[in-house]
Design brief:
Layout lengths: L4 H21 L8 H9 L4 E5 L5 E4 L1 H7 L17 H15 L7 E7 L5 E12 L5 E9 L1 H23 L3 E6 L4 E4 L1 H7 L3 H4 L13 H12 L4 E8 L5 E12 L5 E10 L1 H35 L5 H30 L6 E4 H16 L2 E6 L5 E4 L3 H14 L7 E9 L2 E8 L6 H6 L9 H14 L2 E8 L2 E13 L6
Parallel strand pairs: 12-14
Antiparallel strand pairs: 1-2, 1-5, 3-4, 4-5, 6-7, 6-10, 8-9, 9-10, 11-13, 14-15, 15-17, 16-17
Helix pairs in contact: 9-10, 9-14, 10-14, 11-12, 12-14
C-alpha cells in the first residue's frame, strides 16, 4: 500500500517531534576525564573507598583520608583488616567475602575503624559490588563518620536514663498533662499516692481525680498555664480506696517545639503528715482552751462553794463535782498521751475479735450494758497497733457513757469483705441530728469530744475509714451507728 505524500510528511514531522521530546528528557552525558572524576570524588561529603582483591585498598578519596587521619600511601595496597580490631575485622571481612560470592548481606552497616593516631571512630558504610574495567569484582563503600552522632545518642540515652531514674525514684509525685488536661505521664510516686497503676491514670483528665475542682476552676487553671503562669496551691486528691490525699501542687506550663503551649507538668507533694501535725496541734489547743478549761471552771466554782455557809448537801455536791472534774481531766490527759503515742507505734497484725471480747466484758461490768454480738467469732487479724483496743474502747464507751437510758444496749458486728473488715458499733441512745453527724469528725469541732478525735487519728494511721449514721435508717432518735473499716491482714483464719 502506498502512502500519500501528505501522510508521509506527517509521519516525518511526528518522528521529529518524538526525537525532540527525547532530547528534552534524557540527560546529556558528558565526556568524562580523570580531572572531572577526581573533582567529584574529592568534593563529596562521603568518604569513598574501592576494595579489590585480597581485602586491599585500591582507592580512597580525600574525605576518606580525613576520616582515617593519614595519607593515601598509608592505605593503598594495604589489607583493610589491619585497621580494625580483630572481632570487627572478622565481621567486615565476612561481609566482604559473602558479597563477592554474590550472597545476600546488609548493604548498610556500621563498624569501628582505627585511625592513624590510634584512636577509634565509628563509621557507617553503604557498600556496593561492581565489576571493574579489569573484569574483576570491586567493592565500593561510601563512608560517613558517625562517631559524634553515636556519642550524642549515647549521651542522650544516658541522660534519659538518669532523668528517668530521678523521676521514678523521687518522693514527690510527677504528673504531665496535655492541652486538654488529659494525663500523658505519671511517675511511680504519684501512682502510689492515689493507689493506682499508671495505666489507670493515663488518658484521664486530672480533675477527675479530685472532688475540689469545679469546671470553672479547671478552666481558670488552664488559662493561667496558657499565659505562662507557674503557681503552687493545695489540692486534695481522691485515693482509689476513697480516702483523701492532701497535697501541694507546683504547676508549670511547658512549651512545645512549635513555641505553643503543650500542657502542664506538676510536682505533687503529699502533705498528709503536715496536715496531721496541724490537726494534732489544733487538737491540743482545743483540749486546753475548751475541755480542760471547762473542767477547771467547774473546780473553781465548786471550790468557792466550800468556803461559803451553805447547806451540807451543797457541800457534798460541790466535793463530788470537784472529784468528777478531776477524774475527767485525768481521762483527758490519758487520751492525749495516747494521741502522742500514735505515730511512734509501728503497724502490726492485731486480733480484732480478742480485743472486742475484752472490751465488751469491761463495758458490761462498768455500764451494765446489754451487748448484741453478730458476725465472726473467730480470729480476725487486721492492720493496726497496740492502741487498737483504745480505739474500740472509745467507741464502746461513747455508746454507753453518753446514753441517758437506764437499759443501755449496744449492737456490735464484724464482717469481712475482700481485703477489708467492717466493725459496726451502734447504741440505743438519743441519736444525733444530721448536722451533728456531719460535723462529728470535722476539724475544730467539739461535737465528738477528745475520744472521737483520737479515734479519727488512729483510723487514719491504720489506712481505714469511719462513718456515722442512724442505727435505724431514717430514725435519728433511735441511736447512732459507727462503721469502722480496717485492712485485713493475711493472717486472718
Amino acid at each position: 500500500m502506498k502512502m500519500s505524500k501528505k501522510a508521509g510528511k506527517q509521519t516525518k514531522k511526528s518522528t521529529k517531534s518524538a526525537s525532540k521530546a527525547k532530547k528534552e528528557y534524557l540527560p546529556v552525558i558528558p565526556n568524562w576525564n580523570d580531572a572531572m572524576v577526581k573533582v567529584i570524588l574529592n568534593n563529596t561529603h562521603d568518604g569513598i573507598v574501592i576494595l579489590g582483591e585480597d581485602y586491599k585498598f585500591e582507592f580512597i578519596n580525600e574525605r576518606g583520608l580525613a576520616i582515617y587521619g593519614g595519607q593515601a600511601s598509608d592505605l593503598i595496597g594495604k589489607d583493610f583488616r589491619k585497621f580494625m580490631k580483630e572481632d570487627m575485622a572478622k565481621m567486615v571481612a565476612e561481609y566482604y567475602d559473602m558479597r563477592r560470592r554474590g550472597e545476600d548481606v546488609p548493604s548498610v552497616y556500621s563498624f569501628r575503624l582505627i585511625r592513624k593516631d590510634g584512636s577509634e571512630v565509628t563509621v557507617e558504610g553503604r557498600v556496593t559490588l561492581v565489576m571493574g574495567p579489569d573484569e574483576k569484582p570491586k567493592i565500593i563503600a561510601h563512608l560517613q563518620d558517625i562517631t559524634q552522632i553515636e556519642r550524642n545518642l549515647r549521651d542522650l540515652e544516658e541522660s534519659k536514663t538518669r532523668y528517668k531514674l530521678l523521676v521514678e525514684t523521687m518522693n514527690d509525685g510527677l504528673a504531665i498533662d496535655n492541652v486538654n488536661g488529659e494525663l500523658t505521664y505519671v511517675n511511680d510516686a504519684f501512682c502510689r499516692m492515689l493507689g493506682c497503676q499508671a495505666g489507670e491514670l493515663i488518658g484521664k483528665h486530672w480533675s477527675d481525680l479530685t472532688e475540689e475542682m469545679t469546671p470553672e476552676d479547671v478552666h481558670e487553671k488552664l488559662k493561667e498555664r496558657e499565659k505562662g503562669v507557674t503557681e503552687s496551691y493545695e489540692l486534695t486528691w481522691s485515693h482509689k480506696t476513697g480516702k483523701t490525699v492532701p497535697t501541694i501542687v507546683s504547676a508549670t506550663p511547658y512549651i512545645g517545639h512549635d513555641g505553643k503551649f503543650a500542657g502542664t507538668f506538676a510536682v505533687v507533694t503529699e502533705i498528709s503528715d503536715q496536715k496531721n501535725a496541724e490537726e494534732s496541734i489544733q487538737f491540743y489547743l482545743d483540749l486546753l482552751s475548751h475541755d480542760i478549761t471547762n473542767q477547771l471552771q467547774v473546780i473553781m466554782t465548786s471550790s468557792g462553794l466550800l468556803e461559803q455557809e451553805v447547806p451540807a448537801s451543797y457541800i457534798a455536791d460541790a466535793r463530788q463535782d470537784i472529784l468528777d472534774a478531776v477524774d475527767r481531766c485525768n481521762r483527758l490527759i490519758t487520751k492525749v498521751k495516747r494521741a502522742g503515742q500514735i505515730r511512734r507505734i509501728p503497724i502490726s497484725s492485731v486480733d480484732l475479735v480478742d480485743l472486742l471480747d475484752e472490751k465488751t466484758t469491761v463495758l458490761k461490768r462498768v455500764y451494765n450494758a446489754k451487748i448484741h454480738r453478730t458476725g465472726s467469732k473467730k480470729s480476725v487479724m487486721v492492720e493496726a497497733d497496740v492502741l487498737l483496743g483504745e480505739l474500740i474502747w472509745n467507741l464502746l464507751e461513747n455508746a454507753a457513757r453518753h446514753n441517758p437510758i437506764d437499759n443501755k444496749e449496744v449492737w456490735i458486728s464484724i464482717k469481712t469483705k475482700g481485703d477489708s473488715v467492717e466493725l459496726s458499733i451502734g447504741d440505743n441512745g438519743p441519736g444525733l441530728s444530721d448536722t451533728r453527724k456531719k460535723n462529728l469528725f470535722t476539724e475544730r469541732s467539739h461535737a465528738g469530744g477528745v475520744g472521737l478525735k483520737l479515734v479519727r487519728q488512729m483510723i487514719r494511721k491504720y489506712g481505714g475509714s469511719i462513718e456515722v449514721a442512724d442505727r435505724v435508717k431514717g430514725k435519728s432518735s433511735e441511736g447512732v451507728n459507727f462503721l469502722v473499716t480496717l485492712r485485713k491482714t493475711k493472717k486472718t483464719k
